[in-house]
């Protein structure tokens, strides 16, 4: 078993196609097939179910994938450590929630790129629960998530604090809670922590939970609210321009429900590259 074979296996697992994996790696298809077959022979188990044009992982393949990810991650870190110099270089993979990616990261990424142009930045955007999984699976170097996480394999650093607001369509009239309780509570993804804070406040104050409607994208959610379909809960930093333009009305949640810390997380056992340490310092994290 060698690193190149694990790279091939990972590509096939992601693409679910030997042909597409070969194209991605710039290999001939027979080379990809041969490496997968050699892996299967070495391990003594089939790793793929093979169909007409697609493949999928067998139970053994699913078991191997996270270990392959870790080995490839460690290999990349070893190369980075050997090449390490005063100037950060290589690839830096950052994860973030949509709220952080849209409001906080553009300036941070711009400043970082100007300072360290040799680093190839990439962003993976997903909810907190998915970001934690990608950190544990060595798929990103660090991620911005709603905290606290309190996981034994993860180190977390406080970076921001968001203030949540209930967002309704614009109205000059005084807000009446009862007027929106029958409306759908809109979200761009399942298990949103912001909606959870609002639902908990409702329950703690004797109200029934509101019915949640998923609407695919954050922009779609806000357009629906602007046009009178439903309400949502988001950090006020995400909607400040809409507030000033008179497109929506916002109502702060009580502080014990409305303050949400954003933390930056990384795996406790991951190697701290120069590229990552410089990024964290730019964000304001000094206790590395």
TrEMBL record:
Signal peptide: none annotated. GO terms for molecular function: DNA-binding transcription factor activity; transcription cis-regulatory region binding. Residues 1-58 form the HTH lysR-type domain. It holds the Pfam family LysR_substrate. CDD domains: PBP2_YofA_SoxR_like. Transmembrane segments: none annotated. Keywords: DNA-binding, Transcription, Transcription regulation. Gene3D superfamilies: 3.40.190.290, Winged helix-like DNA-binding domain superfamily/Winged helix DNA-binding domain. Belongs to the LysR transcriptional regulatory family. This is LysR family transcriptional regulator. The lineage of its organism: Bacteria, Bacillati, Bacillota, Bacilli, Bacillales.
